From TrEMBL:
Belongs to the binding-protein-dependent transport system permease family. PANTHER family: ABC TRANSPORTER PERMEASE PROTEIN MG189-RELATED (PTHR43744:SF12), ABC TRANSPORTER PERMEASE PROTEIN MG189-RELATED-RELATED (PTHR43744). Residues 66-257 form the ABC transmembrane type-1 domain. InterPro entries: MetI-like (IPR000515), MetI-like_sf (IPR035906). The chain crosses the membrane at residues 70-91, 98-122, 134-157, 178-201, 238-262. It comes from the Bacteria. GO terms for biological process: transmembrane transport. It is a multi-pass membrane protein. One of its GO terms (cellular component) is plasma membrane. Keywords: Cell membrane, Membrane, Transmembrane, Transmembrane helix, Transport. This is Carbohydrate ABC transporter permease.
Amino acid sequence: MPARWWRTLGAVFVLLVFVPPLVLLVSGSLTEPGQPPPPTPRLLPEPLSAAGYEHAWSLGSLGRATLNSVLVAAVAVPLSVLVAAWAGFALARSSRRLVTVVVTASLLALMAPATALLLPRFVIFRFLGLTDTLVPLIAPALLGASPLYVLVYYLAFRGLPADLYDTCRLCDLTPARTWWRFALPVVRPVTAALTALSFILTWSNFLDPLVYVYDRDLFTLPLALRSLSVLDPTNFPVFLAGAVVATLPPVIVFVLAQRWFLRSESPGRQLR
């Protein structure tokens, strides 16, 4: 079966899995607030009402929470991808012994549960006086956010033809110029995929803001949605309206990035 058929089947599968919940989410958010939930889901509630969005925006302070989430994502996502790309390229050009040690340590780090690091990280940020700020939400990006990103970039850069690196060496290019001008453009689909993944994980991060942020003015969208859900658990259209606001940016990022991780270009075509 040609590759395009597999891609078409994958796209159809994604649509069947993700589109119906999104449709029901939007439909529920357009229900009149204060009404009891319908016995069965409705695609078009009667009457249609946008009052849920007004209540969610005012009661949940979604405007400020959205700005906080955008600020964290705008700094953390590019920084984490950039650091991971640097580390992956350096690892791909390192000796076999060093690669073995680093890859083994990265795999062991991936096996450790994230909650096991909460206490030591909290102690460090509390000692530095950085709790109740957005810094603890951005600081992990200085380490590439996750060893997974570094390993993905390492495999991508290692898979490039050795002639590419030899040519750059003969042209007396520095490793930084080789990385920027030749290696990074070839792995552009990997960059797009990791950027989308990093954005989604950063945008939906609930545990870290819950641990480090106490000031309501610094709440990110996941914390704002939690506050919104406990105000009136029976008024589901208001909470669903807030969920639509929180879900829309990841959907947009995925749509913008999907053409890169559904399309694979050969290194020779990229270098021309």
